Amino acid sequence: MKVLVIGAGNMGLTYAQGMAQSDLLRKKDLMILDSVREKTEALKENGEFDVYEKIEDCLPKADIIFIAVKPYNSDALFEAIREYRKPDQIFVSIMAGVTIKTMQEAMDIRKVVRAMPNLPAKVGHGFTSFTASKEVSRLELLTIERLIDTTGRSVRLANEMEIDKSTGISGSGPAYIFYFMQSMMEAALKMGFSQKDARLMVAQTFQGAVELFNSSDLDPDAWMDRVASKGGTTRAALDSMEENNVKELIKEAAYAAFERAVELGKENSQQHV
Length: 273
What we know:
8 strands; 53% helix
């Protein structure tokens, strides 16, 4: 099995490195393609995978192709893939908002997996949701899942609408966490803590809370009840959030991301008509 990653940006390189560090592929079976000379030269020096600058030199060799480019850069790439693709190749896209049908028609391919990763994949704790066209077999999907899981964990969803929904939760979700962390750090700074202490305080609190959550089957409400006693400091904070409608605002934010994902899919479909 030979795998090609197209695009050595943040997520493309993350997937390539995750697969390179696993026991799923030998070095000679993992290829990466990028058009930026500085990137390819650095990757060649690194020596983790075979590096290419021309699609005709690597695409025909691949069994599975990960497409990790920005959607607005996809037109020329789709044309090049259409010229060199083979019927049995499987294409795994991590491009936001580009539908399976759009890719099938633009590249004249059948086997497409659409995936939505998130940024923690860079440190091996990512979450990727994915779905596939009906032409991808169950065995092929298991292989794809194992490759994706080199960056964290994943779940297969029923359809592309579920992928768009997951964008609003897991895909964009890390930014919501960072937003909350930034707010807590600013509060700590206002209270007089140093930047260093504020960062450590907030980071350790988040990490500890996640570890607690993962340590049992208790839901967040149950954990909040364990932390917050009647008339105490935590209850005062939670009551303030409830009074300011914070929970509903977070839900609205997640839905805004979901709705934008749907819009992007429509825009990209029209672009490739």
